[in-house]
């Protein structure tokens, strides 16, 4: 950081990112130098054959190229390890060494072409085996290096690099009109570049109008996030390592304070005397929590066969195969009276959904409708009738495809399409569109009418309505509950791991009447939204500015227990700080780091939040104890900061959410002890989705 400037163009690589590439080439050339020296000076060759003499002279010349390469690569490594992320002055000579190395690469290219010409002319008639192997080795080594350099150049090429350099130069000369023109061109170029990357990522999908709009909006979002930032990808990795250490240090400092209301930090969240835990000894609260655990199974089932096989890779495949219409006649019985849209030829998704319930002996759940149609703003879902709970359940799938990711990333605020609103009701744009699509689908095909009229003898007409979902499905379910509540005023929504940027404050407060959300530990998604990204961006740049360590040391420290020395001590006495370098401007980012993203309306996770947290037992010589899980009522506005942790992605997975919910109940239900779980997993029928003990 900042990106290197070479050939009057900025590249998406920093001068401190060259340690590992240079080390790789250095080791490769060292090995080849030793092998080539042994072959040329230690092994006999046919001196009477002209092909051998020509090739030996060629090999001795290549030795000189290898020595030159080793000198340049060692210099690049040494220079790249100097300075810090922002203090680039000690590394200014790197670009000149790279120019020399590229000149040597041109010579290597000439040698590679000559080697191929020799192989074409002499390989068959020449009888000297040593000469043949030598020629093949030189050509292979040359082209390996050339291809690796070409791939690196392609990966680090910045389409807006030349405009960026011009903008930087005009800022120094204070040419306001020219600066404005170049800035506008740079923003357009960055948005266009991100759009091309997204289209490359989605190369196997058919573009539609809505998808093209999503490309533009998501590309603009990324361009806005990186606006005025001269950073490279490795800077973000180093910043995450530093930010994690800063968060851990702040938590430790708070706990060390004498007068402190915070008793502990569980999953990164402060616990005070005013923190409200769920009272699971109360029968009403326990029953409510059991319903939360129970309906998580529906949210998990919506993922279809991929999640089913991930959880049960061996026996799950056998069970699906035994029920599949392609391999078994009995498979058709599982899909009787079920309307299925756009499932695969074997109907694996609807079979997996049924298996999720049959494996837990929940035979009272009947699938009515399953939509596997997947597009931008059009999320798969299924509708089921649960006779045991007397509910009709709409379960919406979470993110499972690149199209879903585009829906997730369309994070601007959009007004909820409701006539009667109590305040300003705004929601996540992509999920508002998805909820509208599902509502339209339910009305056009009269799916809910079919579900409530499924079995009039059992009173299905009087069943309640429940909407569930996980991740993208959680946000869509919460918004869909707004849209359906005028028709079904008693409905309830269970939103598992919902996105943080979902509802405006007025909509969030209103949703507490009928939405229950669940967040597990340090889950990243409930802490993500446009307003949260602004804070994350600011904190990331702050730790990068304060760091005085080389980037390679920071990233290497992140692979193990992060050394506290890698983060500068905050709130230090200015007199005790080391003197600034002669050119202090080199410590500053070339752009204005105080610039925030464009103002966006703060959005929050929905409903009343149950936050499942756990402690972190210290490691001992005998290992680490199992953490203790507990559930507390969370504050919607407390999920305003991304907690950097290795668990922030893992704790978003739906099966981990289900496991965390069940672990909270272990102290209250002996039937859910860890030993009992293991024993029950050996039986043909897995343990039930919720504890059956009182």
CATH topology-level name of the domain at 276-322 and 335-529: Rossmann fold
CATH superfamily of the domain at 276-322 and 335-529: Alpha/Beta hydrolase fold, catalytic domain
Structural class: alpha/beta
Tell me the name of the CATH class of the domain at 276-322 and 335-529: Alpha Beta
Count, helices: 23
Low-confidence stretches: 571-598, 674-694
Which strand-content bin applies to the residues?
A: 5-15%
Looking at the overall shape, the CATH architecture of the domain at 276-322 and 335-529 is: 3-Layer(aba) Sandwich
- Tell me the strand order in the biggest sheet: 5-6-7-8-11-12-13-14-17
Largest sheet: 9 strands, mixed
First and last CA, distance: 59 Å
Keywords: Calcium, Cell membrane, Cell projection, Endosome, Glycoprotein, Hydrolase, Lipid degradation, Lipid metabolism, Membrane, Metal-binding, Phosphoprotein, Postsynaptic cell membrane, Synapse, Transmembrane, Transmembrane helix
Membrane topology: Multi-pass membrane protein
Domain Fungal lipase-type: 393-528
GO molecular function, one term: lipoprotein lipase activity
């Amino acid at each position: 950081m900042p990106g290197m400037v070479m050939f009057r163009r900025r590249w998406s690589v920093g001068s401190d990112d060259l340690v590992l590439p240079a080390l790789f080439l250095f080791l490769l050339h060292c090995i080849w130098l030793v092998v080539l020296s042994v072959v040329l000076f230690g092994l006999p060759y046919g001196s009477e054959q002209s092909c051998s003499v020509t090739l030996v002279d060629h090999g001795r010349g290549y030795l000189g190229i290898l020595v030159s390469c080793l000198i340049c690569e060692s210099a690049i490594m040494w220079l790249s390890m100097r300075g810090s992320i922002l203090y680039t002055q000690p590394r200014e000579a790197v670009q000149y060494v790279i120019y020399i190395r590229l000149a040597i690469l041109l010579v290597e290219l000439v040698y590679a072409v000559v080697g191929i010409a020799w192989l074409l002319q002499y390989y068959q008639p020449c009888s000297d085996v040593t000469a043949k192997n030598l020629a093949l080795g030189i050509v292979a080594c040359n082209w390996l290096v050339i291809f690796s350099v070409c791939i690196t150049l392609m990966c680090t090429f910045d389409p807006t690099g030349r405009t960026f350099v011009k903008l930087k130069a005009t800022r120094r000369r204070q040419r306001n009109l020219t600066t404005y023109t170049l800035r506008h061109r740079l923003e357009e170029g960055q948005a266009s570049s991100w759009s091309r990357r997204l289209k490359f990522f989605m190369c196997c999908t058919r573009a539609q109008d809505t998808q093209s709009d999503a490309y533009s909006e998501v590309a603009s979002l990324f361009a806005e996030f990186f606006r005025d930032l001269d950073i490279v990808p490795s800077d973000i990795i180093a910043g995450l390592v530093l930010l994690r250490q800063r968060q851990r240090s702040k938590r430790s400092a708070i706990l060390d304070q004498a007068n402190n209301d915070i008793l502990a930090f569980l999953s990164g969240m402060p616990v005070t005397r005013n923190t409200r835990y769920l009272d699971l000894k109360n029968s009403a609260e326990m029953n409510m929590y059991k319903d939360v655990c129970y309906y998580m199974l529906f949210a998990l089932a919506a993922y279809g066969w991929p999640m089913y096989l991930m959880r049960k890779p061996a026996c799950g495949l056998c069970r699906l195969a035994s029920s599949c219409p392609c391999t078994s006649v009995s498979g058709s019985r599982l899909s009787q009276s079920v309307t299925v849209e756009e499932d695969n030829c074997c109907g694996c998704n609807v079979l997996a959904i049924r298996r999720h319930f049959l494996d837990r002996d929940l035979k009272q759940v009947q699938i009515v409708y399953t939509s596997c149609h997947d597009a931008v703003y059009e999320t798969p879902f299924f509708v089921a009738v649960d006779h045991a709970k007397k509910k009709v359940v709409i379960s919406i799938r979470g993110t499972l495809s690149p199209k879903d990711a585009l829906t997730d990333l369309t994070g601007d605020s959009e007004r909820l399409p409701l006539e009667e609103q109590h305040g300003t009701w705004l929601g996540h744009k992509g999920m508002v569109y998805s909820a509208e699509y599902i509502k339209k689908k339910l009305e056009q095909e009269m799916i809910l009418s079919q579900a409530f009229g499924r079995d009039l003898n059992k009173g299905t007409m009087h069943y309640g309505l429940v909407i569930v979902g996980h991740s993208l499905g959680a946000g869509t379910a919460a918004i869909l509950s707004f849209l359906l509540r005028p028709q079904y005023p008693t409905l309830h929504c269970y939103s598992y791991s919902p996105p943080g940027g979902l509802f405006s404050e007025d909509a969030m407060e209103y949703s507490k009447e009928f939405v229950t959300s669940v967040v597990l530990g340090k889950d990243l998604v409930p802490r993500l939204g446009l307003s949260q990204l602004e804070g994350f961006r600011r904190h990331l740049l702050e730790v990068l500015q304060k760091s005085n360590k080389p980037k390679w040391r920071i990233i290497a420290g992140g692979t193990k227990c992060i050394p506290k020395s890698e983060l500068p001590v905050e709130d230090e006495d200015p007199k005790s700080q080391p003197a600034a370098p002669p050119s202090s401007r080199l410590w500053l980012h070339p752009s204005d780091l105080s610039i925030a993203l464009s103002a966006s309306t703060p959005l929050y996770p929905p409903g009343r939040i149950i936050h499942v947290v756990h402690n972190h037992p210290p490691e001992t010589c005998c290992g680490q104890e199992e953490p203790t899980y507990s559930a507390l009522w969370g504050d919607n506005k407390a999920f305003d900061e991304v907690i950097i942790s290795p668990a922030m992605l893992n704790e978003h997975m739906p099966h981990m959410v289900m496991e965390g919910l069940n672990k909270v109940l272990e102290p209250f239900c002996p039937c859910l002890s860890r030993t009992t779980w293991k024993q029950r997993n050996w039986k043909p029928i897995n343990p039930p989705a919720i504890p059956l003990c009182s």
